[in-house]
């Protein structure tokens, strides 16, 4: 029935040259309810995301026959309707008036759009036999992997510690390049030493502790510079075009270098 109705609507839209919007709901696991065949019939599949705790909404493309996928549009829900947010990075960075331990800025990319966001970590002594691990906005399994690498390859100990990780603004990060920023936030909270608030991080961490090269390094750094950041901790691997960049760069090749006092940036 759903397929037949969709076919009839699509035929009418093509015959009349009209745009057609089919609105549905999602299941608890985030999938579009109903037969999957409808997703194959349409040109574009968009998700309208948000929660009651925030006024912004995200439109995310997961299928697009005529353009790129994984692009997002960020809007704010106002009394008169939705208003576009021209600079989403400022929305997701939170209040950064002062540095505090456990906060690191990640220079990410959504589709082709650079987006800066704050990753917050809290490491505290546990009163439980099994320390708690809680994550909001990031993959729980990736946090477990990162903690294991920090302990086995970099010499940090999280034994007997509760670990909480949060992405400010309610955003969800799916990019492996967030590993280095998350690790920096965890180490900062564990040591009690704040990260300078004008510094950004990105880089994927391997199981050996090495920091792997990250795509689109140039656009990430240009976005950070545009927002007033002055330092960047980035992978040692990979080519980087520094033309026009005034950021001080620290290129690291292994996770254990986070334990070192940051040397003067190049």
Bulk shape = globular
The overall pLDDT average reads: 87
- Total helices: the number is 6
The CA-CA distance between the termini, in Å, is: 64 Å
Largest sheet: 7 strands, mixed
What CATH architecture of the largest domain would you give? Answer: 2-Layer Sandwich
- Radius of gyration over all CA atoms, rounded: 21 Å
Number of DSSP E strands: 13
The percentage of residues in β strands lies in 25-35%
Number of domains: 2
TL;DR?
This protein is of the alpha/beta class and 266 residues long. The chain contains 6 helices and 13 strands.
Which keywords apply here?
6 helices; alpha/beta; 266 residues; 2 domains; single chain; globular; seven-stranded mixed β-sheet; Ribosomal Protein S5, domain 2; four-stranded antiparallel β-sheet; 13 strands
């Amino acid at each position: 029935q759903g397929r037949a109705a969709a076919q009839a609507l699509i035929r009418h839209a093509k015959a009349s040259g009209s745009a057609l919007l089919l609105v549905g709901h999602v299941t608890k696991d985030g999938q579009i309810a109903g037969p999957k065949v409808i997703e194959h019939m349409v040109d574009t599949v968009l998700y309208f995301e948000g929660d009651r705790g925030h006024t912004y909404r995200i439109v995310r493309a997961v299928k697009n026959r005529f353009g790129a996928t994984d692009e997002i549009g960020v809007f704010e829900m106002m009394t008169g309707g939705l208003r576009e947010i021209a600079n989403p990075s400022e929305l997701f960075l939170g209040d950064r008036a002062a540095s505090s331990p456990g906060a690191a800025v990640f220079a990410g990319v959504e589709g082709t759009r650079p987006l800066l966001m704050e990753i917050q970590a809290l490491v505290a002594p546990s009163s439980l036999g099994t320390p708690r691990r809680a994550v909001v906005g990031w993959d729980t399994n990736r946090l477990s992997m990162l903690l294991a690498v920090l302990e086995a390859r970099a010499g940090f100990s999280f034994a007997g510690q509760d670990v909480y990780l949060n992405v400010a603004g309610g955003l969800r990060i799916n990019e492996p390049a967030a590993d280095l920023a998350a690790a920096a936030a965890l180490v900062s909270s564990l040591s009690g030493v704040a990260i300078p608030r004008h510094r950004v991080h990105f880089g994927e961490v391997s199981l050996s502790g090495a920091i792997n090269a990250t795509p689109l390094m140039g656009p990430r750094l240009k976005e950070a510079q545009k927002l007033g950041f002055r330092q960047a901790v980035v992978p040692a691997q990979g080519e980087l075009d520094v033309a026009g960049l005034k950021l001080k760069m620290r290129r690291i090749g292994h996770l254990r270098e986070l334990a070192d006092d940051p040397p003067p940036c190049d």
